[in-house]
Amino acid sequence: MSEERVGFFTDTSVCIGCKACEVACKEWNAIPEDGLSLTAMSYDNTEALGASTWRHVAFIEQPKPEGRTQLPLADGESGSDVRWLMSSDVCKHCTHAACLDVCPTGSLFRTEFGTVVVQEDICNGCGYCVPACPYGVIEQRPRDGRAFKCTMCYDRLGAGQEPACAKACPTESIQFGPLDELRERAALRVDQLHDAGVPGAQLYGHDPDDGVGGDGAFFLLLDEPEVYGLPPDPVVTTRDLPAMWKHAGAAALSLLGGVAVSFALAGRGRR
Ligand code: SF4
Ligand code: SF4
């Protein structure tokens, strides 16, 4: 990695659900439309991240939690018993990225910025990366089978620009920059929210000691990760591969040894 590692800090406490990030991502990366259907379940008609949705703004409607204070801005606004949680999800650009570990063609690679990028002209459509991702981010496009996901606007980073989603976000819910700086900023923001009476504020994906070595794209959430459809304890799915190869190697060696002994005994019997 020749450059400083960069990333996203998505502060969901200031997301207003405008979806400017989704639109900017689609426009900049020329991503095809992925169905203009209405789910009739929520205001969220994009539903999930996918081959043609590299940013997805989740709209979560939930009863106001008892004993917990709302964000000061939302207090007393409507007298409603429900609250909205909005969060712009994206590829986590994991420190230990299983998608990258299993890719046989080198289509997925780690960039000089520490991000994880998939190259559409090298992907052969094998799909190994899809079940390997612990977050369910990467997906094959049904029309041609190749895998696609967020590149953190690799072309823009190369030109010294920030990713399109961060540039378009009107509330600075999506912040881009050197990862260490973002982690410091995020810790201060959590303290600020706790002091303001929002005890549910918590960081997700910021910890380099978690099961994926920390994410290059991490979040400030206002409730538990499961509420946002995020796994509470993600683990790099290729974690056990070295041990599995060691066991497979030992089994193959003992099999070969057994075959050799059988041949030797059979040869001695014929003499
Ligand atoms: S979130 Fe999934 S697709 Fe993104 S880098 Fe991690 S393993 Fe790969
Ligand atoms: S652009 Fe910013 S405020 Fe609008 S939905 Fe995306 S993250 Fe939220």
What does this structure look like?
Helix content is 28%, strand content 17%. It has helices at residues 20-29, 98-102, 129-132, 154-158, 164-168, 179-195, 241-270, and strands spanning 6-11, 55-63, 82-90, 108-110, 116-118, 139-140, 147-148, 174-178, 202-204, 217-221. Residues 72-76 have low confidence and may be disordered. Bound molecules: iron/sulfur cluster (2 copies).
SSE topology:
Elements: E1 6-11, H1 20-29, E2 55-63, E3 82-90, H2 98-102, E4 108-110, E5 116-118, H3 129-132, E6 139-140, E7 147-148, H4 154-158, H5 164-168, E8 174-178, H6 179-195, E9 202-204, E10 217-221, H7 241-270
Parallel strand pairs: 1-10
Antiparallel strand pairs: 1-8, 2-3, 4-5, 6-7, 9-10
The protein binds iron/sulfur cluster (SF4) (2 copies).
Features:
single chain, 271 residues, alpha+beta, four-stranded mixed β-sheet, two-stranded antiparallel sheet, 10 strands, 28% helix, binds iron/sulfur cluster
